[in-house]
Write a structure and sequence with these properties.
mainly alpha, 5 helices
Amino acid sequence: MTPPSVPFLYRAFFLYIEPISALAGAFYAAFRQDDYLKDLTFSSQLTHTVLPTQTNMALLQLANLYLLFALNEHFVLSSTTSIVTWKKLLIGLLVADFGHLITMAPAGMAVFWKFWEWNAMMWGSVGFVYAGATMRICFLSDVGLDRIPKGKGKRQ
């Protein structure tokens, strides 16, 4: 039931590609915790072999939030024809994009631009977030969306 005026690229990314990638993040945070932590930075060494209970709990909570992210994005956007609703949800997700990038800062500033050194997790935690934020900014800026001339009604 997505708005007919939303181009295919936006629909594909926001309804399927991004939610599926969030589910992958949820899987790794919940079931492959050592790999998740090891691959968050350029250094692939963990200083312990058994994760502390609090770290395990925090990763399970993160997995739960990734799941919430995936379900909210897909179910809300696929159930409305309102561009206003799409934009409001995407503004919230854009704020979350910037918050997610800020959480990568302890890895050092190089994590934001040394893409040739990124592993798969860093591509997801930085590169894919750049892509999602760019898609949101484009959508919120009406790039590729049909505009309704002034006085001819409101776009919903």
